[in-house]
Design goal:
single chain; about 300 residues; mainly alpha; 14 helices
């Protein structure tokens, strides 16, 4: 049983790294680049009456105001600072810091949830666009549940599996072309593999089908381990492809600035499957003896 404390630390570390990377990537995005808050704040259908009746501005005055635009930009950067604090806090959180952890993990997860809704709105309310971010906004929740609640571990494991299934299947909806296939998918495939465009489209369709297969197979005991290994590898490759597939040696600084954060927020797509893989190891029975798992049951 000498491995038990190491296994305990490994499980917590995987969730911490996953959560840290999401928060760090989103912090950089908000502080340096932008986020889709204007898709809501500049929605005339939703806000015109509020702007004109409460603030006394015409809609045209509102959307063309430099001071209002500056205020929106400042607010976005402020949210980025909050995500940066969440990232730092994630590394500092311990089992005896529940209030501290609750504020940053739950608050940060709520922010990521709202961000997913905004991306969904920006993409013409494609439901798949929202659920593709499930792993990202659920990583802080999983860490919080593991550290600070007495929820049975089998339920935490099930939540993680559902997050994986939703993320991969919704990614698959774009890959197979159910939703318009993003040009970035094609560009990354072409730049990474150096194949023809028709071959890239065919490969993405196959990858999309496999996403659906994985989303189902992870719930089938006899084949779940292999499906999770695939999810770990494919999740990592699709994250790294954001940087590798858009890498330009002549614009090195801009390449890293624009695409590193895109990679960071997607690395949890590999880390959460890894979390399940570690719990599915044969020596998982050792966890039953740990105080960390008190009140939690292992399947």
């Amino acid at each position: 049983m000498t491995e038990s404390p190491d296994l305990q630390r490994k499980l917590i570390s995987i969730l911490k790294i996953s959560t840290f990377l999401v928060f760090l990537g989103r912090a950089y995005q908000h502080i340096v680049w932008d986020a889709p808050y204007r898709s809501f704040l500049w929605d005339e259908t939703l806000l015109k009456e509020i702007v004109e009746n409460i603030f006394g501005l015409t809609w045209n005055e509102y959307v063309t105001s430099l001071s209002i635009d500056s205020a929106i930009s400042f607010s976005i950067k402020t949210i980025g600072v909050f995500y940066l604090l969440c990232a730092i806090a994630t590394l500092m959180i311990k089992a005896n810091t529940k209030k501290f952890g609750k504020f940053f993990l739950i608050g940060g997860s709520f922010g990521l949830f709202i961000l997913a809704l905004l991306y969904c709105k920006e993409k013409f309310f494609h439901v798949g666009q929202f659920f593709e971010y499930t792993i990202q906004f659920m990583s802080p929740i999983l860490l919080y549940m593991v550290l600070f609640t007495s929820v049975e571990f089998k339920k935490i494991r099930l939540i993680a599996l559902i997050a994986i299934a939703l993320t991969f299947s919704c990614h698959g909806l774009y890959a197979i072309g159910y939703y318009p296939r993003p040009g970035s998918f094609i560009d990354m495939t072409l730049n990474t593999l150096q194949i023809s465009e028709p071959s890239a489209h065919a490969m993405l369709k196959i990858a999309g089908v496999l996403d659906f297969v994985v989303a189902i197979a992870i719930f089938i005991p006899r084949i779940s381990y292999g499906a999770l290994v695939y999810a770990f590898i494919w999740g990592g490759l699709t994250a790294i492809a954001r940087l590798v597939g858009n890498f330009h040696i002549d614009f090195l600084g801009n390449t890293f600035s624009q695409w590193t954060w895109e990679m960071l927020i997607r690395l949890p797509h590999a880390l959460i499957p890894l979390f399940i893989l570690v719990t599915d190891r044969p020596d998982i029975r050792f966890l039953k003896s740990l105080p960390f798992w008190k009140g939690k049951q292992i399947i």
